[in-house]
Amino acid sequence: MKNLLVTGGAGFIGTNFVYYWLGKYSEDHIVVLDALTYAGNKDNLTEAEKNPKFEFVHGNILDQPLVEALLENHNIDTIVHFAAESHVDRSIHGPDEFINTNIVGTHTLLKAAKKIWLDAGKESHRFHHISTDEVYGTLGSNDPAFTESTPYAPNSPYAASKASSDHLVRAYHETYGLNTTISNCSNNYGPFQFPEKLIPLVIINILFNKSLPIYGDGRQIRDWLYVDDHNRGVDLILEKGVSGQTYNIGGTNEWANIDIVHLICDLLLEQFSNDKSLAERFSASPAAQATDPKILITHVKDRLGHDRRYAINAQKIKNDLGFLPDESFETGIRKTLTWFLNHQPWWNNLLSDSYKKWIATNYSEPI
Ligand code: NAD
Ligand code: TYD
Predict the structure, then answer these.
(1) Domains in the chain and their CATH numbers?
(2) How confident is the model at residue 356, as a pLDDT?
């Protein structure tokens, strides 16, 4: 039985992790610590809060006394650290929060774990740090995929802040003997993803007849993984991963952005033709008139420092821990579309405040 502290558990991946974990390990206790930034949504956890083994704490990972009290009072033996500022575009416009949360915040958690765990001889307790493939930088089209020994070369303030936090986690293992693991995962998609990220943004913009902004030529490549597969990878690392080790998690599923946008257009057109009620609910959408949503595609100015390609070599987690994704992109993207179509109140709430402001102030002009 485990007592977990899940930081950032009201965000996209953290929320999915909480439901995955409560569903699989009914004996375990989970405390979520989340500052409820624009990306965190307490309502995500409404179902979890019905479970007596779950507790939500509204607080900041930068608050060391709070973190120490949680570790002590809840007998936490496992930290799963998702909390972060996670959007590359925001890191370009304002890096400061990324430095505070991703670097100083991670260091605060490490200090608390060292004090409450190591100084009390609880050496087997695990600190698992959730990181990203973006720390490895960018690949050319024929380069081999990132392995765990690919040198770090982060290009955005977001990636640099995550790289920094990875180094701190490593240092606390090497220097103090903290039981740590790190996972560097590729792009996630699925339920609860905040609609500033490519896939949910495109889905919602198609429904409201808004342009689909493609940065530059749209031939940038990402390796996409369904969020539950990421969380199964984290589960395997917590169960069998070796202290001090890093594991890459990926779907071996490389897609150019423009091809994903085309796919979402095709699948939504198909959904509208199979379910006539969608045309009533989303009457502004081109799909409501059986028009191909690709007419909404608008190439805009490229992101500064935009990484061209990410690709994960997931051999280590496959060979050492037996990881394979359950979801194909075909099944995962259909599940995701269905979830967004069935959860309009969830994303409507977000559209009414920060998302609308973000759209109004930050979209690039068409080129
Ligand atoms: P998200 O932005 O959806 O959620 C982040 C959560 O962290 C939010 O609930 C937010 O309120 C919380 N948070 C932010 N600052 C905090 C602070 N100072 N104290 C406490 N809570 C705070 O992010 P996500 O997409 O779910 O990503 C989760 C983690 O996974 C991040 O560490 C990210 O770097 C990593 N990751 C994400 C992806 C991806 O594709 N989304 C891929 C690989 C790795
Ligand atoms: P994003 O979902 O922001 O994830 P990340 O930057 O972490 O990979 O973006 C995925 C890709 O889609 C990335 O290459 C940027 C691109 N993109 C667009 O072309 N248009 C958009 O409106 C957004 C949000 C992203």
Answers:
(1) 3-193+223-253 (3.40.50.720)
(2) 61
